[in-house]
Design brief:
The chain has 160 residues and is an alpha/beta fold. It is 28% helix and 31% strand. It starts with 14 loop residues before the first helix and ends with a strand.
Length: 160
C-alpha cells in the first residue's frame, strides 16, 4: 500500500535555525519621520562547508517566506499580520508560518510599549551573515550596506 506525505515546503523554520539567529531591536523612524519599532534578524557566519553564502541566503529567504513574504527596500513593505506575541514587557516572540517555534526578541520595556501603542514593528531580514556578538556600530554598518546593495528584506508585523 502506498501512502502520501504532505510536502514539507510549507514547513517553517526549525528550532536550530531559530536558535542560531541574531536578533536586534530598536526604536527608529520610518521614511515619513514617524517613530517605529524595528527588528533585525540575521544568520550567523557559517561554521561548516554547508554554510556557504548561497546556503545562508537561501535559509534567510525561506525564513522571510515563513513570515509571509518580505519585500526588498525599494518595494512596498508588505503587511505580515500578527507575528508578534507580547508575553511581557521584556518578552516578545516572533512567530512564523508553519512552525510551532518562534524567536524570542531582545526587547526593553520601552520598545514593547511602543509596539503595543503603535500596533506595529518593521521586520528586517538580512541576507548576509552577521555575528550575534555584533555591536551597534557593526549593526549600523550592516544595515547601511544592506540597504545600498538590496540585501535586506522588510515587512510590517503586528502584535497578536
Amino acid at each position: 500500500m502506498l501512502t502520501a506525505r504532505t510536502p514539507l515546503a510549507a514547513a517553517g523554520p526549525g528550532p536550530g535555525l531559530l536558535a542560531a539567529l541574531g536578533a536586534w531591536t530598536w526604536l527608529g523612524v520610518d521614511p515619513d519621520d514617524t517613530d517605529i519599532a524595528h527588528v533585525l534578524l540575521t544568520h550567523p557566519p557559517g561554521h561548516t562547508e554547508h554554510d556557504t553564502a548561497e546556503a545562508i541566503e537561501a535559509r534567510m529567504r525561506r525564513l522571510s517566506a515563513s513570515l509571509g513574504g518580505l519585500a526588498e527596500p525599494q518595494d512596498l513593505v508588505p503587511d505580515l499580520g500578527e507575528r508578534l506575541l507580547i508575553v511581557g514587557t521584556t518578552t516578545v516572540l516572533l512567530r512564523f508560518h508553519g512552525s510551532r517555534f518562534g524567536t524570542r526578541l531582545p526587547v526593553r520595556p520601552g520598545w514593547t510599549q511602543h509596539v503595543r501603542d503603535q500596533g506595529q514593528a518593521v521586520i528586517v531580514v538580512g541576507l548576509d551573515p552577521l555575528p550575534r556578538s555584533a555591536d551597534l556600530a557593526r549593526v549600523d554598518a550592516y544595515l547601511d550596506a544592506g540597504l545600498a546593495s538590496g540585501r535586506l528584506l522588510l515587512g510590517l508585523a503586528h502584535p497578536a
